[in-house]
Amino acid sequence: MGKITNETLRKRPTAPLIFKKIKDKSPFEIVGGKEVLLKFNPDIKGLDKLFKNNEVEEIITASGSKLTKMFFIGTGGPFKLTDLEKTKEFGGGSGGSGGGADDTAITESMQCYYNALAYHLKKDLNNKNATEKALKSNDIAKKVHTYNKSTKLKASELIEAHYKPGKEKKLLTWIEFDDKGQNVYTKTANALRKHQKWKGVPHFHRGSPFMKAIYESKALALEFDKSLEQDVRKAPLSGYSDDKWNPGDIWMSTYDPNPTISKPLDFSKGGKSCNLTFEMLKKAVQKEADNKKLLGVSLKKVETTATVTEYNLPKREQNIGVTLKKFRFGQTGDFFNSTDVYLIFNQKEMQFRSFNSTKSWQGEVKGSFAAGGKIGGGGVNFYCTDILKRPIGTSDSDSIKWSETKWNDSKFNDFYKLYEKYSVHRSNAKPISKKDLVSIKEFKKQANGYTSKGRNAGPAFKFSKYMGLLMLESIYGKSNSRLNEWASEVLRYAMSNIDISSYFIKIE
Fold first, then answer.
1. Are 385 and 400 in contact (CB under 8 A)?
2. pLDDT value of residue 357
3. Of 192, 412, 385, the residue nearest 295 (C-alpha)
4. What is the C-alpha separation between 246 and 378, in angstroms, rounded?
5. 202 upstream amide cis, omega within 30 of 0
6. pLDDT of 94
7. What is the pTM of this model?
8. Which of 242, 249, 293 is nearest to 108 (CA)?
């Protein structure tokens, strides 16, 4: 990795990191491999302020031409700047396979290493014991099985990836310790260990062959479900994805990590279905979790205090008594200010929009810090068709064939009529009066001229807003006594909480 030099200070904000590590009493790696707690040399007045304020040229001047000034004291010292190893947090390392992984793969995999360390130490993690050296140890490595596609991710590579140029602003917020000696990973790991009191150190999986084998069992259940008559099927006809069955980003297990040996949740006969129902599979997942052998864990970035919630217990605890209260155009109620439509439930809000495109449209549960789950347009339409008997944008009741209504300008008259209807609708949380409706000429002008981030986004606005209005027409176009049933199923599906979804915990 090399040592810290003048150029290290000049290229990146290394000096403030050194200041923070000393303040947090985090150990430094000395060239040669030894870890030492350091303090600023009290004989050099104002030295701490120079590092805190990143006064690079003054630090370089103070160090002397040969970097001989002993800035730091500690066991085995004093030490000069070039005695400090240029570890990953200071921009060191050669760039391994972890650097090529996306942010989600990096953070989920890194969390596995912290989790294993917490169980290994049998105590809460902090900046003093959750060190790079500890995370990279062989004891931890043999308990963690994390992959980016087919590439296994090592702790050293993942740590390095957090400090890769271009990643600092986003990923450093996960790994940097706060004034209390905690980061996102330690908060999550500590909450998990307290909630799940397992014996020994479980294996932790992310994208591993073992984890893939778990979802192969779900595929068998879906295969069997599709073979049944339509009126007794449990999974939505639009499809039932892995994360809606169980959104575990990572899995913990006491089983052998080789799935050919342990065969997790294996109900197959030579890889073939054996009439595996979703009810059977749900009971099996619950039993494994109760016995502390297998558990899916959904991860959200912990901003303050980590909270652990159990989902899909035998007796329903979430999304009971869901009612649809109102809808709203965007956050403000201004029809032309955004591309989205919000449904306001008694428990949550859900945003429906395309993501700056003219193809894919979906709903997303909104929360305080992170999204609470999604449902694709096909899923929304399935429940509109199945429960409300009114598909979105079509009269065809075959939900398998459904797709979003493609926009073309011949639809402007219908678009405008729906705008008129739902702008003044009684269920609109922020209705306007009929006199405030714009003319169709002005309507076309504003729709075509919609901008996002300084660029014209008229096509995305027309597609997304039109789809939102078509959904409102399915919901409110005629009276329906099953509207709250529809609301329950849509919200439950988005949150991986329908009746056949399996047990998991969420840390957020």
1. no
2. 82
3. 192
4. 19
5. no
6. 45
7. 0.77
8. 249
50, burial (CB in 10 Å: exposed 0-12, middle 13-18, buried 19+):
buried
Greatest pairwise CA separation for the chain in angstroms: 83
Joined tokens for residue 190: 């500590």
Q: Pick from 503, 502, 501, 494: which is nearest to 345 by CA?
A: 494
What's the pLDDT tens digit per position in 446-505? 999 999 989 999 999 999 999 999 999 999 998 889 999 999 999 999 999 999 999 999
Residues 6+ apart with CB under 8 A from 418: 466, 469, 470, 472, 473
Residues in contact with 21: Cβ distance below 8 Å, sequence separation at least 6, in sequence order: 28, 38
Q: Are strands 35-36 and 28-29 parallel, antiparallel or unpaired?
A: antiparallel
CA–CA separation, 280 and 221 (whole Å) = 9
Q: Do the Cβ atoms of 466 and 307 come closer than 8 Å?
A: no
At 44, list the tokens.
């050099």
Residue 121 to residue 23: CA distance in whole angstroms: 24
Residue-by-residue DSSP string for 340-384: -EEEEESS-EEEEEESSSSS-EEEEEE-SSS--EEEEHHHHHHHH
Tell me the domain boundaries of the chain. 6-90, 97-205, 208-299, 324-494
Q: Which two tokens stand for residue 399?
A: 């939900």
Distance CA 300, CA 506 (A): 8
Question: d(Cα 444, Cα 299) in Å, to the nearest integer?
Answer: 43
119: enclosing H helix or E strand:
helix 103-121
CB atoms within 10 A of CB 192: 26
Closest Cα to residue 214, out of 255, 275, 270? 255
Tally the residues of the chain. Answer: 508
How much helix, strand and coil, in percent to the nearest 5, is found in the chain? 40, 15, 45
Amino acid at 200: G
pLDDT, tens digit, 9 for 90 and up, residues 282-340:
999 999 999 999 999 999 999 899 999 999 999 999 999 999 999 999 999 999 999 99
Q: Under DSSP, is residue 82 helix (H, G, I), strand (E, B) or coil?
A: helix
Q: What angle do CA 156, 208, 213 make, to 5 degrees?
A: 170
Helix (H, G, I), strand (E, B) or coil at 177: coil
Interstrand relation of 203-206 and 144-148 (parallel, antiparallel or unpaired): parallel
Cβ distance 223 to 267 under 8 Å? no
The tokens for 135 are 């995370």
State the Cα–Cα distance between residues 277 and 222, nearest whole angstrom.
8
- Positions of the chain with pLDDT under 50: 65, 94-97
Q: Is 323 left (phi over 0), alpha (psi -120 to 50) or beta?
A: beta
* Cα dihedral 99/100/104/107 (nearest 10): -20
What is the pLDDT, as a whole number, of residue 95? 46
